[in-house]
Amino acid sequence: MNNGKVYSQKRIQIYTYNRQLHLISGQRPNRIYPIAVGKPETPTPNGIYSIINKIVNPGGGLGTRWMGLDIPNGPYGIHGTFKPETIGKAVSNGCIRMYNHDVEELFSLVHIGTTVMIDSLAPGTSRDFLTYITKPGDSLRKISRLFSVTTDELAKINDLDNPDRLQVGQELKIPK
């Protein structure tokens, strides 16, 4: 535990192009869920984030569970819905919607601090790098383990003079 966050091997990968959320342990997904994503006017933001809070029965149209994300200009989150017919569509204001039974299961499997990667490109589409915004407690070693890349490769790609000194909010390129 570091700065109130629990770091684990589990991470969430969200693919907005096919509207799926993958819960990944190690290198393999152990669960795949259908989701709804942001509509074209309010798209779900791509990037690498983390879960910052979890709420049971948040009220409003947020279904039975809420997992808030540290996306700037939020709030954005992964949450349930009382409109199950919206799952599989681009209809939200940027949040990720799930069936209530799915979000309840996911909620029980992840912790505050879990990494959430959101990508809109289909496999095989050209983009060489993801962008990662550093957070308190991050180190190049921790980030390299998370993405299965060597620290030397990250330092070189990001032209880091001193890889031992990362700044909170610093953008790092992560090879795909």
Write the layout of secondary structure elements.
Elements: E1 10-15, E2 20-25, E3 28-34, E4 37-38, E5 47-56, E6 65-69, E7 76-79, E8 90-92, E9 96-97, H1 100-109, E10 115-119, E11 129-133, H2 140-147, H3 151-157, E12 171-175
Parallel strand pairs: 1-10, 4-8, 7-9
Antiparallel strand pairs: 1-2, 2-3, 5-6, 5-10, 6-7, 11-12
Written description of the protein model:
With about 180 residues, the protein is α/β, with parallel strands linked by helices. It folds into two domains: about 10-120, L,D-transpeptidase catalytic domain-like (Beta Barrel); about 130-175, Roll (Membrane-bound Lytic Murein Transglycosylase D, Chain A), CATH 3.10.350. Helix content is about 15%, strand content about 35%. The protein has three helices and twelve strands. It has helices at about 100-110, 140-145, 150-155, and strands at about 10-15, 20-25, 30-35, 35-40, 45-55, 65-70, 75-80, 90, 95, 115-120, 130-135, 170-175. The strands form three sheets. The chain has an eight-stranded mixed β-sheet, with helices on one face. Strand 5 (about 45-55) and strand 6 form a beta hairpin. The longest helix has 10 residues, at about 100-110.
